[in-house]
Design brief:
InterPro entries: cNMP-bd_dom, cNMP-bd_dom_sf, Env_Response_Regulators, HTH_CRP, RmlC-like_jellyroll, WH-like_DNA-bd_sf, WH_DNA-bd_sf. With about 240 residues, this protein is an alpha+beta fold. The protein is built from 10 helices and 12 strands.
Length: about 240
């Protein structure tokens, strides 16, 4: 990783496009930006690894991060795909335990890192703001429970539509409209859904035949947001 110049103040409006950050009290927002360091990562470079003890709070500002687990035997699982301006790293900060997953850059990526020591010192003086970090963790816990429920009760095509909708809206964190173009290769999407690439490809082509998406190399264009959302929210069939 390479340390970049001090984050410009102009970054604040972009950070506020994230629902969690936008709802944080103003003094907490300013403290996060004041203590932040901007780092660049190369494609495939780890932001942190499972078992690591560094508990910095982080936010993607460009590029993307893959969150999952990569085994020495080449096996992989992908839990989330994090894009600007989503936050991560709060769990280890809250429970003071090692990182639970690997996080690596997908292409050239820049990340804001708020050093654990500086943030802990500031929160010790302003303890009321620990609640904001708890709310960030709780939002992700709700998403995790929802994903587990979906695996148990929804057919693949419906789960796929829901995952595409969630990724395009930043898992509910993006305050603006959903993104139309998702940079997510099919093999990574299959890992997120816990199915084979062939099964994911078949379900994607079914949605494409309906005219709801368009498949490109490494990306998926969402053509009909409302249809995808209706399918993701509909009853299982």
């Amino acid at each position: 990783m390479k340390l970049l110049p001090t984050p410009p103040a102009e970054l604040l409006p972009a950070l506020r496009s994230d629902t969690w950050f936008d709802q944080c009290p103003g003094d907490f927002q300013q403290a996060l930006l004041r203590h932040a360091q901007l780092w660049s990562l190369d494609d495939g470079e780890a932001l942190y690894q499972r078992g690591g003890r560094v508990s910095d709070l982080c936010c993607v500002t460009a590029g993307a991060l893959r969150v999952g687990a990569w085994g020495e035997d080449g096996s992989a699982s992908l839990l989330a795909y994090i894009e600007p301006y989503q936050w991560l790293g709060e769990i280890s900060l809250l429970d003071d335990r090692p990182r639970s997953h690997d996080v690596v850059a997908d292409g050239p990526t820049t990340v804001l890192r708020i050093p654990e020591a500086a943030l802990q010192d500031w929160l010790a003086q302003h303890p009321v703001h620990w609640r904001a970090l708890a709310q960030l963790a709780c939002a992700k816990l709700r998403m995790t429970f929802m994903a587990l429920e979906d695996i148990a009760r929804l057919p693949l095509e419906q789960r796929l539509a829901k995952r595409l909708w969630l990724v395009s809206s930043g898992y509910g964190a993006r305050s603006g409209p959903p993104r139309r173009l998702i940079r997510l290769p099919q093999e990574q999407l299959a890992l997120m859904l816990g199915v084979s690439r062939q099964s994911a490809s078949k379900a994607l082509h079914a949605l494409e035949l309906r005219g709801w998406i368009s498949l490109r190399y490494g990306t998926i264009e969402l053509l009909d947001w409302e249809a995808l959302r209706a399918l993701s929210e509909g009853p299982s069939t």
